[in-house]
Amino acid sequence: QSALTQPASVSGSPGQSITISCTGTSNDVGGYKYVSWYQQYPGKAPKLMIYDVSERPSGVSNRFSGSKSGNTASLTISGLQAEDEADYYCNSYTTISTGVFGGGTKLTVL
Amino acid sequence: QLQLQESGPGLVKPSETLSLTCTVSGGSITSSSYYWGWIRQPPGKGLDWVGSIYYSGSTYYNPSLKSRVTISVDTSKNQFSLKLSSVTAADTAVYYCARHFYLPGVAVDYWGQGTLVTVSS
């Protein structure tokens, strides 16, 4: 299985919205609603931000939202804040009952 | 509050076997619908799912590592373990133990703090 494809970096100014894409195949992203997104600060463990494509765990800001179209999932962060600067990873379930991550996207808040 | 803690050697020689244990506290490893897994992250690189296990012993492995990986569970100690054989420098990474809250390989809601394992002679 190949890693999901994410842009290496995205950037935005405070208050703006940004979207991070995550492209897979019909064997993973396109085949299920089981896509998750994580936020990771340097030296820290990742934190779950979105699961099941668009569900937010308790305590996660509603500025974070997820969606999916075909084989591509997306994470949108609205009202960008300095604290959102981090690495973001997508993660999908696959048809062979395994998991696969994206390569990660570094978000810079200008 | 659920907590996961990795333990094991931080240095492993090439061709030897990497062994790590994750101790779960604040909850039972036999709780239904939860899977327990290992995820690694080479220095400066992205996340890589290694494998997951259900408390019954059912295992799920990354196809690229399957021939070298064994994950096991000890319900009496509320622990699960990882063994990765024939390691090389490419296996140097921070290894996280994790809880998947309804399927193996996805939706990790609890993570250990991570432990750096270096493969070097």
Write down the overall mean pLDDT of chain A: 97
Report Rg of chain B.
13 Å
Largest sheet of chain B: 7 strands, mixed
Task: Tell me what portion of residues of chain B adopts beta-strand conformation.
Answer: over 45%
Distance between the termini of chain A: 35 Å
The shape of chain B, in one word, is: globular
Q: What percent of residues of chain A adopt helix (DSSP H or I)?
A: under 10%
Q: What structural class do you assign from the helix and strand content of chain B?
A: mainly beta
Quaternary structure: heterodimer
Strand content of chain A: 35-45%
Mean model confidence by pLDDT of chain B: 97
- Identify the most extensive interface between protein chains: A-B, 27 and 26 residues
Q: How many beta-strand elements of chain A?
A: 9
Q: How many extended strands of chain B? A: 11
Assign an overall shape of chain A: globular
SSE order of chain A: EEEEEEEEE
Our Rg estimate of chain A from Cα atoms comes to 13 Å
Helical fraction of chain B = under 10%
Structure characterization notes:
The complex is a heterodimer of chains A (110) and B (121). Chain A has 110 residues and is mainly beta. In chain A, strands 1, 3, 4, 7, 8 and 9 form a six-stranded mixed β-sheet that branches. In chain A, strands 2-6-5 form a three-stranded antiparallel β-sheet, with no helix packed on it. The relative contact order of chain A is 0.34. Chain B is an all-beta fold. In chain B, the strands form two sheets. In chain B, strands 2, 4, 5, 6, 9, 10 and 11 form a seven-stranded mixed β-sheet that branches. A four-stranded antiparallel β-sheet of chain B has the order 1-3-8-7, with no helix packed on it. In chain B, 41% of the residues are buried. The mean pLDDT of chain B is 97. Chains A and B meet through strand 3, strand 7 and strand 8 of A and strand 5 and strand 10 of B.
